[in-house]
Amino acid sequence: METQNIYLPYLMQIDKVSEDAPFVKTFRLKFINPEDEANFSFQTGQFGEYSVAGVGESTFCIASSPTRKGYIECTFRKAGRVTTALSDLEEGNTIGFRGPYGNVFPIDEWKGKNLLFIAGGIALPPMRSVIWNCLDLRENFKDITILYGAKSVADLVYKHELREWDERPDVKLVTTVDPGGETHDWTGEVGFVPTILDKMAPKAENTIAIVCGPPIMIKYTFPILEKCGFADEMVYTTLENRMKCGFGKCGRCNVGKTYVCKDGPVFSLKQLKQMPDEY
Amino acid sequence: MNNLQQKAQQLLESGNYGLIVGYEKGTSGKARPVFIRKAEHASKLIFDESCDQNIAVYLYRQEIKHDKKKVIVANHHTLKSIVELAAENQVFDGDFMVLAFAENGDIIELNTFKEIEKHVATLYHGLTEAEAAMMKKIEDMSLEDRWAFWENEFSKCIKCYACRASCPMCYCPTCTVEINQPQWISVPSHTLGNLEWHVMRAMHLAGRCVTCGQCGKACPLELPIQLLTYKVALDSKQFFDSVAGTSICADNALAIYKPEDHENFIR
Amino acid sequence: MARIGVFICHCGENISATVDCEKVAKVASEFPGVTVSVDYKYMCSDPGQNMVKEAILEHNLTGVVVSACSPRMHEPTFRNACAEAGLNPFLCEMANIREHCSWVHEKSDATTDKAIDIVRTLVEKVKRNEALAPIYVPITKTAVVIGGGVAGIQASLDIADAGHKVVLVEREPSIGGHMSQLSETFPTLDCSQCILTPRMVDVARHPNITLYTYAEIESVDGSIGNFNVKIRLKSKSLDEKLCTGCGACIQKCPVKKIPSEFEQGLGKRTAIYVPFPQAVPNKPVIDRVNCTYYIKGKCKVCEIVCPTKAIRFDQEDSFVEVQAGALLLATGFDVLKTNFFPEYGYGKYEDVIDGLAFERLASASGPTKGEIRRPSDGEIPKKIVFIACAGSRDPAKGIEYCSKICCMYTAKHAMLYKHKVHEGTPYIFYMDIRATGKMYEEFVRRAIEEDEVKYIRGRVSQVYEKNGKLIVRGVDTLLMGQAVEIEADMVVLATAGIASPGSEELAQKLHVSYDKHKFFSEAHPKLKPVETNTAGIFLAGACQSTKDIPETVAAASAAASKVAGLFSNDLLKRDPLIAVVKKCAPPLYSSCTGCFMCIPVCPYQAIDKEEIKDRSGNIIKTISHINPGLCQGCGTCVAFCKSKSIDILGYNHDQVCAEVEALLNEW
Amino acid sequence: MERKLLTKDSYRSLITKLIGQNYQVVAPVKKDTMIDFLKISSFDEITEDYIVTVSSAKTVAFPRNEKLFDYEKQNKKLTQQDYDFDSIPQSVLIGVRPCDAFGFHSLSSIFCWDSIDKIYTTRLERTTIIGLSCNKADDYCFCTSAKGSPGSTAGSDILLTKMTDGNYIVEIVTEKGAKLVADFSDLFTADGGADKESLLAKVAANFSVDDVLAKINSKFEDEAFWTEQAMRCIGCGACAYVCPTCACFDIQDESHGGKGHRVRCWDSCGLSLFTLHTSGHNPRENQGQRWRQRLMHKFSYMPDRLNTIGCVGCGRCSRACPVDMNIAEHCMSIIEN
User: Fold this and answer.
1) Which of C4, C373, C496, D49 could in theory staple to C63 by disulfide, Cβ–Cβ 3.0 to 4.6 A?
2) Would you call C584 an interface residue with chain D, using a CB distance cutoff of 8 Å?
């Protein structure tokens, strides 16, 4: 649709719904208008505004990889008004999507390096895009390690993809659940992500660490990476601040003078350390 | 230095108190709330007719809520609000001292809720003549005229919620209008959402409004919204003999049933 | 993703006569989220229920809307059916298109449209329903029986015999109630005390019964399964453990002229007294109002004469708290007294007495040893006029109801008089004779035919004294309203039965509803005659309305069986449709502001305070907390909470709002 | 800059003709107790008896509620109706004070930052702003401290200055202004050369906004400072709603049945829920942080990121504030400390 209205979303049809964990769903979305699809492109790390007509918009990352064409995916947990309305929808329903917005993971700069992905809980979705992006360009990178933890076994999202990664010889996957969250047949680790990371003692040399998770996890993960010798510019994360517009106007997401929607959501630890504590 | 300033200075110098919430001269000679922490700033304090703001709203502010060494200089609106807040468990006995004023201007120290309650009993609780006249003007209108009057007033509302922010009784951390699951009241400002907001605000203040009129004073658009809560306050008095800000016991007219109440549905 | 099944019931013709059920089903099938929508003649029938079950299994339904009658009728039926098919029963809702629609409207498109609206509303609600688990509350298997008359005695014995603990609380110094005051009982004329006292003794001896006499209910909180009853034990000025009941104190007490309550003022008692000889417990109490020691500060004769030194002048009221699973109200009734009848001279003329007083005159253990003598001069009356309906069935005086027992006891009184004073003439003024019990009509006929009681159908307008005679002026309506004047020696008024004094206060303490005459109300006049609207509180006997002895005993046993039924389970299963204070993530923890204005609002005292603490135990905030065992899900707190911090499970804000929006929105 | 003269009678004719030609004419109108910008249908509705209007002129380009687009739902189908840009009327905004007029500059810098908000820009493009110099001021005015002045032409298309005889000095500032003058050239006469300066209100410059800009960044981490500065603030949104440069907004859906629209509506950084996450985490959880955001946004972020100051010195926020948070005083505190 030809428009100059930056608030007008693309219409997307829910092509597939999967329930990934309690209250967590993934939608595969396809453009209803073929022109939109032709004009659309995004890079890993970017986000969008997803909307249910009559309810409103909500911000989350694009969870699929730009290497997978023809659709985008988003994963969300039923929490607020919009995500509740979204989770009531089913295949065939139409939703709105505005985007892509924000900056991207600099995967071109990561060529020839080892990648260490560290994610916790519902923060795997933003990371999933970049993981698949890198796996689809596997020859560009050396070792790829994924450390993923959740509160309990049930709370682990993308279970079948975890299995897929686990079975791949070119990926090292470590999964963990918080103490008490394990089931009797759980074969992964038990412990908090930072603890397990500490135990893994990853090599910092020529390695990029990408961290995504709840604030408390991030807070304890950074020091361990530092201890392992990761330089601040080798560590990346993605911030999630409340947003309404997605393009630097509505006035919510800024951390000091940094606008998460325009300057982020992807930041290196080096950038993060220069930002005030307002996120 | 006048009595109040001297008193404030003494209190701060004594070390027993660390903060005095009172009034100072603001822009163009208007009085405004002030927070004095140093004895040498005590001279900023004033107390005269211009100090008509209800500053009880600050007592439960997160920044000073747990500061037990505070003093509040209270006009009669503020005093009544303190009593009502005490009844609703939002402020606690012993957390602050109140400086009130006798008719001759003498400073009265009130240390406990009981003392405040007793002092408040000596105050006038009705509307001022001007307020009563405004009330009457609206009550005398025909239903249609009254509707038109409020429709016009509400159309100006910009939903800045200054009425809510300035009211000591609006202490909910999440106001009903901000609860969006479900969304009871429309967020964007248009007449319908405005009417719902103001009517709800009035109902939520039923039996709790001390008729300080702060909501109306705070409104940047000068809507006479205090009349809405006054009306409910007057009804509480007329039908349930309940006057907010007079008792530290939770006896809200809507919360309790008395055999002499007009309606017996709650029995 | 909602997959809702909608089941439209025709209810035979009840619904389908005015609502186009097929159309409702068809339209509902197009509602968003509805997977299957069908209509059927009788949904509640076995095939109907099977349709629901099969649809749940076939379509893996996430919710069911049965559109039929009131949920009061068949909600349990369909919830059970859903549960049998593996769907949480609370994901099933009833859309009432019968009482709310088909029964109250004519056949028209508008009626069908309304039914569609109702169904849509419930579909939107059920989409937001959550699976809920029933609440189980442990039951304290002790019953508190309030009132020790024949109802309380019977109920206590029945419950105790069923193996449960009973605490029997009686206000007077002895159990027995009005039945212990009666002389003989209709229609068999056997001695009231003779049949009652063995049961009183049984109560005293029963290992499962704890008896508190001279005691009153101070407060009650809690709810079914777990009441907490505080009982005030009024001071008897006596150490009951030491007292042997020898009666020496009573003999020596110098204050001997106190009108006896038990004798209806016809006899006298002392200040330290037992109400009557067969009293249980047979231990005295001091009436402090009349005791010289308490009035003047000296006397103490009883203390001096007491062989076991059991008198305790400084004894104060004490309290016991009892945990109980059920309460049984058996507080009985009273009869109208005093100047309610100025025209009949009650209170003015000594020889105008009420029925209870006559019982005492006729009783062998009474003040006259069973001889019928006038209170004024002790003469044997030659003519007695009995006036039935003294107060009853008199809307002008505020009592519209029939007291039900007067016709019978008046016939009995006249009969007893005639048996004792053969030459005497009993007259009865009556409005109608209501003798509908077993052998009752025969009893009345016997009074008329064998004992020659003179029945006059008509009302008495006045009783006045003239030359030492009571002139009773009335009309005989069977003689075309001819005036009748009888010179009587004595007049007995069959005064109306009224609620026992203090009933209203007690009802308020217990949150039991009562009628305008202060009689306690049953939960349903036909189907729940011994339950109250407060779960776990039952009614027996005349506290509900005046009853005769057989009826009272039957009701007591019925209430006792309800209690025993309740106590037959260890846990009480309750619907989880209760209020909860909403919690959220830190730092807010809950939007509850802790104003606690919901506490006085709650009719069930289910709300208390809860402290939210951080890991080191510091209190972060104090918020309301709803006790799931006490909450009845009435929703008053929800309506009152300004910050919308309370939700009723199964009727939360989201669900109610969705219903309202479904009704308001045009689709 | 070209100057002309407009007599009071010609002014009346101008406005009357504009209304007659179906322009939407928006002017300060006294309604009940307040003077505010409203659409007028006759010259007589206009008042000039104000220092500033209660609300700012921004509503013309950035209204309280803006329907962004409409939609309709039918079962699983959703259709959208794009914003009708043609519906935006040609407008003339009368009596805008220089401070207010300058405010559009700040607003535009936000709405044109990379992604251009075409709704805002179209509204502004179709509006001719006729400013009116200030002949009086009050204690709240501080335009001269914020790089403005009572007679500044910046932001206006045409600036009028009222002379003692009731006629107006006309300064034609932009092409848009020139076009309007040209369209009604018969109403304008040659400039009489009156001294504009002497007609203007005197507003003392108590501080320099450059000093605020220089100091404020170093203050960010001083939490105690901001807590103390914001103690009095009760956290309503009045300041932002009346501010000519505040652009923060919320996006909401309004629907009835299957039909509805998405709305962009004003919001305020002073409200506690503005930045609250669904999780309960709030990056700006106390009023000190929120007040800091307001001042930093105007005096640090906008200068740094958008090369414009976010405050024009109109003093509206201070006038509207129920507790007299006087922004000029707070600026001075930043400089002093």
Assistant:
1) C4
2) yes
